[in-house]
Amino acid sequence: MINARTNTRTNFRTNDDMTNAMTTKYPSRWTAGFFAIAATVINAAAPVDFLSLNNLQNLSPNQALAQSNNDEQINIRVYQQASPSVVSIRAGSSTGSGVIVSSDGLIITNAHVVRNPQNLRVILSDRREFPAQIVGYASDGLDLAMIKISAPNLTPITFARLNSVQIGQRAFAIGNPFGRFAGTFTTGIVSRIDQDRGFIQTDAAINPGNSGGPLLNSQGELIGINTAIFTGGRGAGSGNIGIGFAINVDRVKLFITEAKEGRIAQTPSQGSGVEGSRRPAMPIPANGSPVTGNISRDSNVLSSDNSFYNIHSFEGRRGQQIEVEMSSQEFIPYLFIINPDQEVLAQTDTTPTNNRTIRLSATLPADGTYLILANTSQEGETGSYTLRASLNGSTATNPNPSPSSGSVIVQYQGVIDPRTASPYQFYGQQGQTVTIDLTSPEFDTVLVLLSPFGSIVDNNDDISESDTNSRLVVTFPTTGIYQIVVSAFDSSEQGRFTLTVR
Hints:
This protein is mainly β. 14% of the residues lie in helices and 36% in strands.
C-alpha cells in the first residue's frame, strides 16, 4: 500500500498486525475466515476438549480438578494402549501411518500412501524398521490397502464393535503428520457420520502423514482409519482445518475379511485417496484433445461442500507444464490438480464468478499419475462439460527452481471483487526458493503467503513506491500446501489480476 498522505509503506509482520489491518479493509466474511485459520492453528497445536472446559465453569475447584484429571487419565490410557499398534510408513517419497491388525504382521493403511510401493518400509513405535510387501488394495475407490511385515512381538489393535460409533463421542488420532512427527496424539469428537459413504467426520487434528493411522474411541479401540487427503475444500491448505475424515471401522473390517480370503485387488484404484471418491478415474489424453463428461448425482461427492465431481488421470514427468481447460454451459466449473502423493497441487479461482470456461496451469513436481478433478462451483449442480489437458516441456534438471530460473510453477488469472480476499493453493518443498508476483492493471494489490500450518510467512503490498503490484521472494521453511491470499488494499477496488509463482 502506498499511502498518499504520508508516502509510507505498510508491512504486516505479525498475525495481529494483519488481522487489525484487514478488519478495517474487508467485510466480516473474509475476516471471519481469517480468524478461522488462526483458530485452526491453535487447535492443531494444542487440541483441547472444549466440552470439558464448558463443564469446568459450573464445577467447584475440587470437582473441576477431578474432571480435568479424569480427562487426562483417559488420554494417557488411550495412547498407551493403542500407540504400540501404530506404525509409520515410507514408500518412495510418500509417507503415512498404518495400524497393525494381526500379530503375524498384517497392517492396514491408506491406498494412496502405498500407491507406488518403491522401497516400502515400516517403522514400529519402538523404532524398529522392516521392509514390507503389498498384500492388496480395496476396490471401487475405497482408500484402503493391506501390507505385511515379518517381525516378532507385534501388538495388534483392538477393534470397536460394529455400529458402535456415535456422534458426540470422543475421538483420538495417532499418526505421523507431515512424515516428521511419529507418534503424534490429538483429540476431538465425532462430529458427523456419513453412512452412505462410510465416513466418520471428526475435529481431531488430522494432517497429511496421519493418513492410514487409527481413529480411536475412549477405550483405545479402532473406530476408523484416518484419510486426511483433500478434505479442506476450496481455499483450504493441507494442514488441519478442524474437519477430518476416517473410513468407518465397519468398512475396514469388511476389507480385512476380503483380504484374508484373497478377494482384494493387486493394483490401486485411480482416485482412491481423494475424499468422497466412489468412481474410478477416467484417463484423459494430455495432448489438448477435448473429452466430454457429465457430472450427475451419481458422481463423486466432495463432503466438505457436497458438490459433485468426476476424476480424470494423466501421466506426467517432473518439470513438465500442464494446462487444463474446463467449460460448461450448464454450471460454473471448478478444477483441482492432484499430485501423485494425492495432495492438491493447484486449484482454480475461489472468487465468485460467472465464467463458464476456466483454465489452470501448474508445473509437475514429480513423475507419476496426476488427477484432474472436474468439479462444480456449487452444491447440487450437475450437467455436461468439456475438458482439455495439454502437457509441454521436458524433465526439469532443477527440482528447486530459483527466481532467476523463470520456470512457472503455478499461474492463476482471476477477478477480485470487494466482498472477498481469495486464497490460492500450491505445493512447495522445504528449501525451495520462489518468486510470487501479483499484478493488476485495475487495483492496488496486496499479497500474503500462509504456511501449511496457517501462519503468515511473508506479505507485500507494493514492489516499489511507483509500482502498486506485489512481489515476494521466499524460501519455503517446510514441505506442504501453501496458500496465497490475493486482495486489494482498498475494499472498494475490484478487477482482473494475474498471480504467478516461479
